[in-house]
Design goal:
Elements lengths: L5 E8 L14 H10 L2 E8 H4 L4 H17 L4 E3 L8 H13 L4 E5 L20 H12 L3 E5 L3 H8 L5 E4 L4 H8 L4 E4 L3 H5 L3 H9 L4 E2 L9 H11 L3 H18 L5
Parallel strand pairs: 1-2, 2-3, 4-5, 5-6, 6-7, 7-8
Helix pairs in contact: 3-4, 4-5, 7-9
């Protein structure tokens, strides 16, 4: 029986010489080997330095690293541009660079770890605030798929930009999933501990959203993809429906913005 081909839509690669995020893997080559050995055919990613950027240098070097990794792995790694509303000029410059090179994925994007907010009374920058919205607006203009860490404001963005394809990362609570149902432009990746690994959460996502709007994702290198593979096979026994989640849905999203991987 032919092995099911799997595309991991949510991964992060270790950044060379960047010690602000602990990582099991000493280099991205080891991380790539682990993914391949786990049965992953391709992976969408950005670097930890990019996604957790604490400076303009972090953001720019993290994105530059991602482009180099994509080239050196000959398409196994597909890069998503990292952006940070604290550094809007650099973010837009990187976005435009990725666009010029033919890439059409932004994210995973975070706001809750923005450095300038860590020592303030504000817990996070919301996705519906002007400085983040400006970045998203440009993503829509350039026809990027935008992957965003799951927060309630994802629904606000979906309503604000109905022509934008959004991938919401991690499976939220039932009420949040029911809000997502009404947003036809939002897909859900099953990554993270509070996502596909907890028994019952993936089953509930399938029941509420259906398999057509779910993407396989693991949040590697933080989590082992093999656990998520096992959960998909258990929660979605039909092989055709499995393949939608494992690869066809993400291929459809990329093809909708003119990309084939």
């Amino acid at each position: 029986m032919e092995q099911v081909k799997i595309i991991d839509s949510h991964t992060h690669m270790p950044s060379s010489g960047w010690e602000k995020h602990t990582n099991f893997f000493s280099c991205f080559q080891d991380a790539v080997k682990y993914l391949r050995d786990s049965g992953i055919e391709k992976a969408i990613f950005n670097t930890w330095r990019g996604v957790l950027s604490e400076s303009r240098e972090d953001l720019e070097k993290g994105n530059a690293e991602a482009l180099e990794m994509a080239t050196s792995t000959k398409g196994f790694l597909y890069p998503g541009v990292a952006m940070n509303p604290d550094f809007p000029e650099e973010s837009l410059r990187c976005l435009n660079k990725f666009h010029e090179l033919g890439y059409r994925w932004a994210g995973e994007l975070l706001t809750y770890k923005i450095d300038t907010l860590k020592n303030s009374c504000v817990s996070s920058c919301k996705y519906n605030e002007p400085r983040f919205v400006k970045l998203i607006e440009r993503c829509m203009e350039l026809k990027f798929v935008v992957q965003i860490h799951g927060e309630p404001e994802v629904v606000d963005l979906a309503e604000m930009f109905p022509g934008l394809t959004i991938v919401c990362s991690h499976i939220g609570e039932d009420e949040f999933l029911k809000r997502l149902v009404k947003c036809d432009n939002v897909f859900l990746d099953i990554s993270g501990r509070a996502g596909g690994l907890i028994i019952g959460r993936l089953e509930k996502a399938v029941k509420i959203l259906g398999t057509n709007r779910l993407l396989f994702g693991s949040d590697f290198t933080g989590y082992d993809p093999q656990g998520f593979i096992a959960r998909v096979k258990k929660a979605i026994p039909d092989l055709h429906e499995q393949e939608k989640v494992f690869r066809y849905n993400v291929l459809y999203l990329l093809e909708s913005v003119g990309v084939k991987i």
